[in-house]
Amino acid sequence: MSEVPLTHILFLSTALFFTGAYGFLTRRNMITMLMAAELMLNSVNINFIAFNKYLFGSKLDGVFFTLFLIAIAAAEAAVAIAIIINIYRQYQSIDIDDADSLKY
Amino acid sequence: MISSAIFYLLAAFILVSGALAVTSRKIFRAAIYLLFTMIGVAGLYFWLSYEFIAAVQIVVYVGGIVVLIIFSIFLTHHVGSEMEKPNRIRMGFSLMAVFFAFVFCLIIIWRNDFLPAGAAPLELTVERIGEQMLSLTEHGYILPFEVVSMLLLSAMIGCIVIALKVSPEAVSSKKGEN
Hints:
The structure holds 2 protein chains of 2 kinds. Chain A is an all-alpha fold. Chain A contains 3 helices and no strands. Chain A has helices at about 5-25, 30-55, 60-90. In chain A, α1 packs antiparallel against α2. Chain A is elongated, with a radius of gyration of 17 Å. The model of chain A has no long low-confidence stretch (mean pLDDT about 90). By secondary structure, chain B is mostly helical. In chain B, α1 (about 1-25) packs antiparallel against α2 and α2 runs antiparallel to α3. Chain B is extended, with a radius of gyration of 22 Å. The chains are: A mainly alpha, B mainly alpha. Chains A and B meet through α1, α2 and α3 of A and α1, α2, α3, α4 and α5 of B.
């Protein structure tokens, strides 16, 4: 573990974050956008864990932030999917370009 | 040597399956690639010897969120249908934005020298996590713990209310108002 520098783990999490950002920008389907947001949340978790492991080994704050983030991500995903299912009932589609009643 | 090889293999696995998860045009495959990404991240936590976090990652993400996403795909999609290709202009601009932001972050990370806090690293045990999570002293996490439990309760009630089936007459009268 000590042979891999911290910057390489940060590169990994940065690349994962921007993969998720790319998906969030290009996808037009609500479920796939939710999946891209989950990827971004995961990359943040990797950062917290890596910083805790490499820089603050005697404390547990990064671990707690990760645990709370995972719990909040679960709540967020559940609410998002409830909203998506409700939108599907209203519009028979989950494309975000179709759900535009509030736009005009 | 072997340890760093494992890290680079895990990193390649995470990045490849993450890229496939955001570019695959079959939504079910995208969900499966997301599942592989989550497993790869859990493997990374195992590699950092944070076994408890890895277990939580597997239980919540792989066992919970991805399964929820797959269920919602089954509720809203026809099996085997492909999504349309993203708009080429939007794809180009998104790629450019993401690429430049990525390079910017890499430069910042590269220039920063991360200094360890110095104290000896301690073993991450479940007892220690549990004690600090529920302690009322200065570095305890009892307040966020309670707040998160309230958040989960309200999210659960909110999901039930939002996804509750409304009767068809109510929907048609709402459409008539528009």
